[in-house]
Amino acid sequence: MRLMFVILFCICSGVAMGGDRKPLWFADSRQEQAARELEGQLAILAAADLDPRFDDLQWRLAQALGPEQASLLYTEAYLLVRAFWREVHRFPPGQLDLNAPLSLMPEPGFASAMAHDAAKGRLYERVLALEPPVPHYLAFSNRLRKLHHLARQPPLAIGAWGVIKPGEHHAEVAPIRRQLARLGDYPGRTDSLRFDGGMVAAVQQFQRRHGLKADGVIGPRTRHWLRLDYQERARLLARSLVRQAHDRHYFAPDHLLVNIPDYRLDWVQDGQSRFSARVVVGMPSRRTPRMHSELRSVVVNPYWNVPNSIMRKDLLPRILTDGSYVQRNRFEVLDSENRPLWLSPDELSRLAYQGFPYRLRQRPGPGNSLGRYKFHLINSQAIYLHDTPKQRLFERSARAFSSGCIRVENADLLADLLLQAQSPEGPPLKRYLYASGPRWLTLQQPLAVYLVYWSAWMDGGRAQFRSDIYELEKAAIGRQPALTASLDKNKE
Questions:
Q1: What is 279-337 written as a DSSP string?
Q2: Which residue of 19, 29, 56, 393 sits 20 to 30 Å from the alpha carbon of 449, by its own alpha carbon?
Q3: Model pLDDT, residue 425
Q4: What is the dihedral angle through the alpha carbons of 32, 37, 41, 43, rounded to the nearest 10 degrees?
Q5: What is the CA radius of gyration of the chain?
Q6: Residues in CB range of 98: below 8 A, 6 or more apart
Q7: Do 476 and 40 touch, CB atoms closer than 8 A?
Q8: Judging by beta carbons within 10 Å of its beta carbon (0-12, 13-18, 19+), is residue 308 exposed, middle or buried?
Q9: Is the pLDDT of residue 476 over 60?
Q10: Residue 378: closest CA among 427, 318, 287, 451
Q11: Average pLDDT across the chain, whole number
Q12: Average pLDDT estimate for 259-263
């Protein structure tokens, strides 16, 4: 890559260009604007802590001795950022690995292309074209700049334990109030030790922004997010921007979007949400995979064909101690030819102990684990969306309880809207609910479905954060967050 920079020296250096002409990135106000824009893009990738080259280049730009040296570094930054996005989009849909090593080499022939762009005065447009096409990109950039500033301030003394309730006086109320003010949740005075109404509202807003129950009580989970340092916030936000840019590159205008850490489903049509619902996703030991798929059928009154893994881990231990569990929960025992068998409770318990040679299938009905509706997705992992009889789980703020599939709140409404959109004059959905068996209803036009993992995003100018339930954003061992490293270098 250094060889490429040597080739580009004649483009970027005022000396090589002869006369009194300025270096490329300082040639006029538009080129200087392009340089500032490029600095912002580089800062995002440095904050994401994806590759030390971004942080190193950001520091070298800050230490540049004059426009000529800075111009060369801006060219290097342009090449690096451009190569990064080319590398990111080589990952297939749903398979981006931010911990994989990156090969950041410019494409062949790029030197002549950049020379042509420079001659035509198009570098500003080329830099803008590198911006990832994600909603609220400017808000992302501004928030990261704010976090960079906050990281220079002394930390606040907020403990990890203890509960503070509204109306109480507590020594930690003042530092918590100042932290809420720093993060944009509290606009008032920051010296009071009383947990008053204004602070309660600020805490509730803070809790909503972090996927917590907005009860206004400062407990361990709220304290965890209050104590999170600013460079880690920046890292999570920047990594999420990269994830969104990769995922959205493949999005269709009309799609179902499930954000796993947010426990939420949205049906999006032309950028607008038509239907939104809370969901339950896979527990950390049985993760819901990131993937792109298609919804082709809605199944009313579905059977539940129990996967072997769930049968071994969950059902057979229960059958071992209580053979009547099978009949009581409306399960059928099927042989290798899918023929139903009748076995006594004692026989079932004995087989559960010796090694169960059969399959289990749960009959349709209100107690079926899939509920009344199944949304069939095309994939090889047996992952789909479905209703559930356990509606109370949707009231919890953290909802990673399933074995990988996704349980959808108000599944009846989603099924009805999907079928109406496909066939407005079709029969009402409820006519199929009282049938004795399952009914497969095929959509005339398959609907794209995206299962994504975005643990942070911008919404209305405010940063949203969610727990990293699968630890995909866990910092690499021995790697210091890029924002911290950059600040340490600037202190030298």
A1: EEEE-TTSPPPPEEEEEEEEEES--EE--HHHIIIIIHHHHHH-TTHHHHTTEEEE-TT
A2: 393
A3: 67
A4: 70
A5: 28
A6: 48, 50, 239, 242, 243, 472, 473
A7: no
A8: exposed
A9: no
A10: 451
A11: 89
A12: 98
Bridge partners for 410 per DSSP = none
Number of other residues whose CB lies within 10 A of the CB of residue 221 = 17
Tell me what pLDDT residue 492 has: 35
Q: What are phi and psi of 291, to 5 degrees?
A: -165, 165
> In this structure, what token pair is assigned to residue 78?
């342009």
3-state secondary structure 465-489: ECCCCCCCCCCCCCCCCHHHHHHHH
End-to-end, the C-alpha distance of the chain in Å comes to: 28
Helix ranges (H only) for 63-121 are 67-88, 110-120
SS3 of residue 94 by DSSP: coil
Tell me the mean pLDDT in the region 69-84. Answer: 92
Q: What is the mean pLDDT of residues 293-309?
A: 95
* Contact of 443 with 418, CB cutoff 8 Å: yes
- Give backbone dihedrals phi and psi of 444, rounded to 5 degrees, phi first: -65, -35
Whole-structure pTM value: 0.90
The pLDDT, as a whole number, for residue 432 is: 82
Tell me: pLDDT of 480 over 50: no
Which of the 8 DSSP states describes residue 51? -
Which residues are CB-contacts of 378 (< 8 A; sequence separation ≥ 6)? 293, 294, 296, 446
Alpha helices per DSSP H over 122-196: 123-129, 137-150, 173-182
Q: How far is CA 301 from CA 184, 265, 328, 415, in A?
A: 48, 22, 18, 12
Q: Is 277 helix (H, G, I), strand (E, B) or coil?
A: strand
Residue with tokens 């920047």: 238
Please give the pLDDT value at position 88.
Answer: 93
Token digits for 269?
A: 């049509």
Residues 6+ apart with CB under 8 A from 30: 121, 124
- Rounded CA gap, 384 and 400, in Å? 15
With CA atoms as reference, report the closest residue to 211 among 401, 414, 454, 405. 454
Give the H/E segment covering residue 223.
Answer: helix 220-227
Tokens encoding 248: 């959205």
Q: What is the DSSP annotation of 370-385?
A: TTTEEEEE--SS---E
475: tokens are 């910092």
